[in-house]
Amino acid sequence: xxxxxxxxxxxxxxxxxxxxxxxxxxxxxxxxxxxxxxxxxxxxxxxxxxxxxxxxxxxxxxxxxxxxxxxxxxxxxxxxxxxxxxxxxxxxxxxxxxxxxxxxxxxxxxxxxxxxxxxxxxxxxxxxxxxxxxxxxxxxxxxxxxxxxxxxxxxxxxxxxxxxxxxxxxxxxxxxxxxxxxxxxxxxxxxxxxxxxxxxxxxxxxxxxxxxxxxxxxxxxxxxxxxxxxxxxxxxxxxxxxxxxxxxxxxxxxxxxxxxxxxxxxxxxxxxxxxxxxxxxxxxxxxxxxxxxxxxxxxxxxxxxxxxxxxxxxxxxxxxxxxxxxxxxxxxxxxxxxxxxxxxxx
Length: 346
What we know:
This protein is an alpha/beta fold and 346 residues long. It has helices at residues 40-47, 99-102, 143-161, 177-188, 202-210, 224-232, 248-254, 276-282, 294-306, 308-311, 324-333, and strands spanning 2-6, 14-17, 28-37, 61-62, 66-74, 86-89, 92-93, 113-114, 126-130, 134-136, 169-173, 193-198, 216-218, 236-241, 256-264, 285-288, 315-320, 338-342.
């Protein structure tokens, strides 16, 4: 079968033929992949960014961690699923032995591995996954929405960490898929205003308009910073960074109201400067967001199930797996919001 893989510890990915998985091991299921999204993490792996060198020992490996599909076969001991069941898969696998895992917080595992990084992922027709990390898809949920569950968990978690409530003014930095999801979840949480900030992100602003948002600042404009300060007026209650741009931290802190909350839901590719005086004088809080717990998955699935039309515009491109390298290009150029690959389309 075809698979999109990281083959060697250097920049680049490749589409190549690999053997299809055998019958699943004990406690695992074999999933026929229906839809899988290309993530910013996949682009970093393609670039062979410093933060991903630890996966070198797993290479070559099939990428892809934002996916859903249909159970094709079940391994010994699996009773929760049967062939034909539709599932989304949590890609971060706990070791089951460390203190967080033993305490029931497997998302905080000290020795976790990841589907699509340390073991074969969803950029292929079939992938094996632990049954304990599969979640049944609600009846009627489309495959495209199923592939949005994993990225939406970040927005769900960021909004909860930021304690967004009815009437809040929220700004989101980064109009890509994570930022789009965060904006949508903030609106569903009752935010009275959601303002999205980008940098030369016209196509992604267009996606947000289709989602019903109409308040944007492009920091690439000559008056971008001044426009943002004007829109902020007395300050936002909550800011969420989904951009990965280190410079955003000080900008975000500067447009918060006193005691506001800034949630960092992205991973800058180099060290970020922090103006501590902005933090101290504003009496603001800086909070990190990573490793979505089970409740964030439940929140994301519920939001997608109840509001499919809100999230549908996020998927701007559907491609066959054979077109995966073009999908990477579309994501990297930011022409796309979310590119979904269909490994079993043919």
